[in-house]
């Protein structure tokens, strides 16, 4: 049984039901999610030991967030209670030609105040096989950036593999640092990067002609780096997308099949399901199987409401095999 | 800031949830809507000053109907309290090969009793740029027909542009008059007609070979008439339609792109969103931009539950530009 | 007015709302359904006198199941109260590449204990034109197998036509008998079989090269047999299927058009709607019309939530005619 | 098994959920009910054969109303399809010092158009033991008044007992007749009257000093009259009432115990449950037991949402015995 | 028609349904409310012209908050769009011995950033009869304290009556000032104070032996002060309270009757309903009638879900008269 | 931090919403609960380490049951996956004079098949301070009776305190043994018995004149027995109860105050909350404080929907102190 550590903020997700607009809502569906914990949740479903490092306010909603992780089988021993708010995001699910909308309300969260000193690193990383971070954490606060850097360094010291979903978001990075001042040091300690051309450009403050140039540069720059991966999504409408993925090593590249998705049930967290699939795949499978498993996970997530891929290993494998869709009795 | 007057009945809309049939419903979703007020609501979202002329019973459901207009930013100063019922329509949303169904229950409504004498025309039309009516009002009662005729005449006196959605419905017109006895006089004072071949035939009691002949006749017959427009819809199923639109002047014609719509969230009010888009476009844009904006509005409405297009100017423009569909953070 | 008898178990159907997974559900939608009673419900909507033979526990949920049949217009005079449980099935509706899932929990049901002696056969079959059974009943218990055999024998004695939906399910047949020990005797008294190659193979314990060989064999083997029919379904995903149907007599074959179904609202009971359509068709229409009516029924069911096709004759005919999909006012 | 005929209008009941005001509602709970059919429903639960005479529009909502009666075990053979609307009432449930509110919207209903000629009286009354009417029917239309008068006359011819809940409502009686022009003829053929002092005064156009004088007069005036009964309700608030009942014959009087009711779940239909209990009691029990059973029924109804008392004989008897309230496992 | 200005923050209210705990919630009911706007909403229901001064973020949830005020008939011309968050409060409704809980999450709201310079005071106060503030606003930020002080000064210059609900809350006042440094200057310009002994002690930084001493001191200290009022609540449990009120002038005192409240539907906003009733009463009625009307308003609010008293003048008067509770048809 | 082991069945709880009857339900609220796990859940809220021993089917609903325990903070390491069903109970919540109803459907559950051999007793009991069982387990199957006996014996060997809620239920005990053949051996190893006179009579097959005689006998008979406790409940109606509790040692007795409960939100699990409070109290407090804490827990549970008391230590203490009921901000 492999052990994977994830670190990142968990937010309250508040969403009008069905296809209602914010203006029409009389109630909001309540869930909890966050990019990295979503990765942990998918892995926990597949029999991996998942442990999440984060911080929450001590009030009932903070407790509910932790309870939701526990319910999904995530070890919450390192979910600290700290002063601050519970970050929130409001999600309006789009349809047809109407885009989905997210209003973030996450300033001043407890997670943004979590510091290196709060964590018992030795105990946290004991027996771990993998550590996963995303580019959202270093964008939130200096403290969270420090925490992420420390985590990848400590992981490397212990021979733990590290993955990072670069995921550059321009509307974060409000605390005074720019992305390229922070990210390279974290990337240095990362073995798997999930990133596209634009992510590399922003994180490295450098222009690339195409993804190939960017990935070549990254493999040269970061000696630890073994894998780069990203998905290609065509967005015909908010309801209809197609998606496929690629995985690169220094010398090889692998490609998944493409999935046609219509009508999409929930678009959020599909990248996290993909990342989880990739981690699972690289821990247990060949590269080609890994990218196939990852993309099947990511495709499957489009059918599951909420932030997390709540699907078993068998269900992902069934999608991989192209045999899903019939009623299973 | 332009000012647009709409006049017409507002009904209670009662609808089984999701795809339930009437026979299965244990509750009905409650909203309020009416063709012309729907036009006003869309315009109010776009920064237009919208004012609706109508009548409602004084009881709590009548008050709720007025409150719903107010919420959408419509000026309800000319929403009168009169004896009578609150007209109701029951909507069962179809899916796949099952058609949507509407049961109307609107006889004896307060609106059907609203008369010319109830209205302070001077105050109503003060500062107005546009007046919009539909063919439903003159079909409801003699009183409502008189009201519509009076409104367009008063508008014309003051140089206010007038649009009419002819929208012939054979199951209305129960009060003893035939459509062609009433409509020509109203059409005479109308600058923009939203109408197809069949609408012209019924309103004018005359056969035409095709839409072209009908529109040519209309331009000759009605000297005020500047624009004729209509949409073309292909109905593959209740879930899947395509739609495009055309706009004609005496000398020119303009065509929007076609939108593929699957799965449709709410088909009702899409014509009203289109009409609102056209009014907005003809007030602010070139003819080609107007038909593009109008059809983007109409297409977008298929994704919004309820009678009204609750979308901002930016959202319609995004659809026009063909760039919608991604998550907006 | 034709009279059709159906016999079989009615279960409680418990289903997470919308596209939720079992793990996410905080409530379950409650309905009642069972293959044969579903057939009766559809027929009752079309003006047929439908009577269902079954058994239920006497507690409130058993009463609710009977009341649900009564609501759908089924005569419940032969719905007995017996010791035992109310069989239950839990349905998770799939979407996209995620399959639908059914968890059955039907052991020890009152229906499984219904015996030949409980039934007044004379009164039950009085004036009946048709009797319908499915392969699920003989798979549940020896008692239910005996009941089915007795029913078809008694029907034949009285010149009542008999249809059977062979519907072989490997996870039933737990009571010690194998399918081929039981089914042939029941098939002998059946005039219409709804079955594919695999159904014939299992029921007759015999391999066939293709459907044609199987159906030829069946026509030879069973002298009463007049019609064989089955549907062909392509499952692109849980959301998207296409479906068509065929009907065979000894000398002729008939084919329906194919329906494209996306997005599917409720896949359960579509075979029962098809069977009901076939029974109706063979009672009132020509063979070609029958298979057209049957497939229109089956296609239409994909749009109706729940187990039963709650649609009128006119609605099925509208689908047959290819003219459905517009709003009906 | 006794057979009881009820006659009257069945309406759609639309109600905001929980304690919401009409102004807050985004959906309305949908049920069907009507004073006399409510009586039939309670009786059907107790093993009585209940048959309801009424008329409904032929559309889906009319069909749903009939289906709801069928579900409750009422024979709907004499529920006719006629032109007209489905009468509706909107119910806002009060709480504490806020009164419950009903908005009636029942003009032009199919029931108001049901005439003597529509009914096969011989077949309707065959084998009946009791006929129940209420003062609402004669107040709706001349046609409904004639129907009620005809029904009680035909019942009397056949020796069928007749009960009437006088239930005077001043906001009905809009069709040109006054209550005292119509009611005496109907009362003449009635054996059990549920009525208070004010009901007698209005129906007979006569002042009485107190209930005693009124009832004495009624016993003298109407030779068929055997029983008079009414409840006494103290309304401390919309949430808290107490209630007891009395039953009078020419020579005796009987009194139930008083029930303390807080918090009331649903106040509507409690009088109908009481009437049903009285009919059941007078058909099967002694007068004292009858009034006890009736008041237990009426009290119990305050705990059941909707118009009808959906409770078994055993449940009413448990309340009569004063032993209810514990969890029954 | 009187015109009343209210000023204060409007928050999103998110609340688990029925009696669920935060830990159990899968959705939260969404409403908008704030002490002072709640006062305005009640007054608008009674035919008063209500205008609210506040600020909101420009995103969809801010727009929804403004729309909710508009729906309730409040003039929102002075609801500004400013940077910042939409303040939120999470409400868990208690029951029996379990207290209700509120989690505030209102730091950094747009309202807290609204400054004197944002407001056109001349236009705001034109034609106003009354201005209402509460002690929450000066507790939020220096800017909001300045705004409140400016508002009462400007009101006084124009002879507009001013009321203030002192409402001291210890967990606010985080911006560096203490309550007694800010409040006296605002109180100086206030004619009606809703306050108890503790409010006076905190605001004036002074101990009093009892309410009488406090109010005597206040009448001496503040020359404009004409009325002091407060309610007395006995809290037997979260479900069961009793409440009454008193009104004092320099020379007289008035007392309302006491209301017994069980079970309470919604406790929030009952003080605001009371304040609204008092303002209405002092504008239109005698002092005794005013306190009676005010307490009837406050009592009635316990029965209405949400923050606002959505009741008509007639409904409050009915409660005052002690005649409420029966079904109104 | 104390560690408490609980053992017993966890069932799916399916319940019509609000006060609906089973016959009215269109959906059922889904939760999970069981007497002993409910005890563990309350203890987990109070910072106790709770571990539950049970068995579940491996399908998604079994997984959901385990996840629900995990969410409440219960250690589920000893929740085994075994063949069998997930036991279910259907709960209809009563009101006023209508009793609550439970339909059990628990035969053949996985728990009923859990055997001594499945459990690693050494690991289970390591470091435990307390073990709790109830009389339901030994009533389900021979296997579950053996398991319970083994558990209390193993606990005693290790000096772990044992509590048992005798909870005799006549409709269980279907597997061939009588209660008095099984229980004495389990009671011998129990230090705290929650039991009334009838429980002792049934378990010991012996008549007692009153509770005193029964408890005296028990203290004599069972040498390990240190405490006996029970609650006294007066059931005025399903909505209104009063409750108090007593605790006895060989030489002393303690009495809690009485709580008045109206209207009750959820009656189920109140005995379990009381038992949890008693265990917590006897582990941390004096006997008088223990019975006070226990009854406060039990009273508080009446306000919380679902099976478990989801309340913090502070909330119970607030109830104990008599100061609860106000809004906590």
UniProtKB/TrEMBL annotation, chains A, B, C, D, E, F:
<feature type="domain" description="Carbohydrate kinase PfkB">
    <location>
        <begin position="1"/>
        <end position="309"/>
    </location>
</feature>
<comment type="similarity">
    <text>Belongs to the carbohydrate kinase PfkB family.</text>
</comment>
<dbReference type="GO" id="GO:0016301">
    <property type="term" value="F:kinase activity"/>
</dbReference>
<keyword id="KW-0418">Kinase</keyword>
<dbReference type="InterPro" id="IPR029056">
    <property type="entry name" value="Ribokinase-like"/>
</dbReference>
<protein>
    <submittedName>
        <fullName>2-dehydro-3-deoxygluconokinase</fullName>
    </submittedName>
</protein>
<dbReference type="InterPro" id="IPR052700">
    <property type="entry name" value="Carb_kinase_PfkB-like"/>
</dbReference>
<keyword id="KW-0808">Transferase</keyword>
<dbReference type="InterPro" id="IPR011611">
    <property type="entry name" value="PfkB_dom"/>
</dbReference>
<dbReference type="Pfam" id="PF00294">
    <property type="entry name" value="PfkB"/>
</dbReference>
